């Protein structure tokens, strides 16, 4: 700062910290959602789930209120909990580890490669024991991790894997996969690609963040998706996410609004982390614009190459 500069002068040349890119289209959709009477989980949330699945080239997506909730439910869906170990990179945001801790699992941190933000995959192999149930890869800054290498690692350690799981669904998922599960913390990576595949297609289970500072936002929010698992119905997995995310209610507000469908059961003492239609309204219009937003970001990145 020179002696002649004021704070206003400096502010004019400072790049703002991740301002959300919100257009009139998102604002109108939110207003329409408010006027519709559906402000909690409803038709817009379901539409966003369907469109995100198409975008990620996966069968199903479930939208939730954060990526942290999405990652925690990924662990719970797979029956990971007390007595299990989850390998997590040392260089990541706290949620990559805390989600596993919430489930009762022990986190094993693995350091980064020299001159890289990625995990040291040789050290990952060394860290796998007969208690290891999952490895969390982090697509930091939207750069897809080396999943090919990770799959080589878990296949080479297949003899150590013990399929257990603290739920029936979790046991069946672990048994069907038959090796250490690979999770993707793709909080930064919606729309990122590598070798012709998009984030969401690489790992067994993937979570995304739609927080206000992300490229794609619903203000707060997140989502889970997963690869098809032989012998396990994706519809069953989706339904279990719905139960976990809404207090174990057998019907959400949209389903209960159908004629004669007001009655429902509580099938488990679970959690409250569903997405609202107000959030989904932002997401729907963001998704319309997202290819263009990504291209613009690539243009800006190109100026630094």
UniProtKB/TrEMBL annotation:
Pfam families on file: DegT_DnrJ_EryC1
A single MF term (Gene Ontology): pyridoxal phosphate binding
InterPro entries per record: DegT/StrS_aminotransferase, PyrdxlP-dep_Trfase, PyrdxlP-dep_Trfase_major
SUPFAM superfamilies: PLP-dependent transferases (SSF53383)
Protein origin, superkingdom: Bacteria
UniProt record similarity statement: Belongs to the DegT/DnrJ/EryC1 family.
Protein's UniProt name: DegT/DnrJ/EryC1/StrS aminotransferase family protein
Taxonomic placement: Bacteria, Bacillati, Bacillota, Clostridia, Lachnospirales
């Amino acid at each position: 700062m020179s002696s002649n500069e004021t704070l206003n002068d400096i502010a004019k040349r400072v790049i703002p910290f991740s301002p959300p890119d919100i257009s009139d289209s998102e604002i109108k959709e939110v207003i329409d959602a408010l006027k519709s009477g559906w402000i909690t989980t409803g038709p817009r949330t379901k539409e966003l789930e369907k469109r995100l699945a198409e975008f990620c080239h996966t069968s199903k997506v479930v939208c939730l209120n954060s990526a942290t909730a999405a990652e925690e439910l990924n662990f719970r869906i797979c029956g990971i909990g007390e007595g299990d170990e989850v390998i997590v990179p040392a260089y990541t945001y706290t949620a990559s580890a805390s989600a596993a801790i919430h489930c009762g699992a022990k986190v094993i941190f693995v350091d980064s490669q020299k001159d890289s933000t990625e995990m040291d995959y040789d050290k990952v192999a060394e860290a796998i024991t007969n208690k290891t149930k999952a490895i969390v890869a982090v697509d930091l800054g939207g750069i897809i991790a080396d999943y090919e290498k990770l799959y080589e690692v878990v296949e080479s350690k297949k003899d150590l894997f013990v399929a257990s799981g603290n739920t029936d669904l979790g046991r069946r998922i672990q048994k069907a996969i038959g090796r250490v599960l690979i999770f993707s913390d793709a909080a930064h990576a919606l729309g990122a690609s590598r070798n012709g595949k998009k984030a969401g297609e690489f790992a067994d289970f993937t979570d995304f963040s739609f927080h206000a500072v992300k490229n794609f936002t619903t203000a707060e929010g997140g989502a889970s998706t997963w690869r098809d698992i032989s012998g396990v119905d994706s519809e069953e997995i989706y339904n279990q996410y719905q139960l976990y995310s809404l207090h174990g209610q057998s019907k959400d507000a949209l389903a209960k609004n159908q004629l004669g469908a007001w009655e429902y059961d509580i099938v488990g003492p679970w959690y409250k982390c569903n997405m609202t239609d107000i959030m989904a309204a932002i997401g729907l219009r963001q998704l319309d614009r997202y290819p263009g937003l990504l291209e613009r970001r690539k243009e800006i990145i190109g100026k630094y190459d």
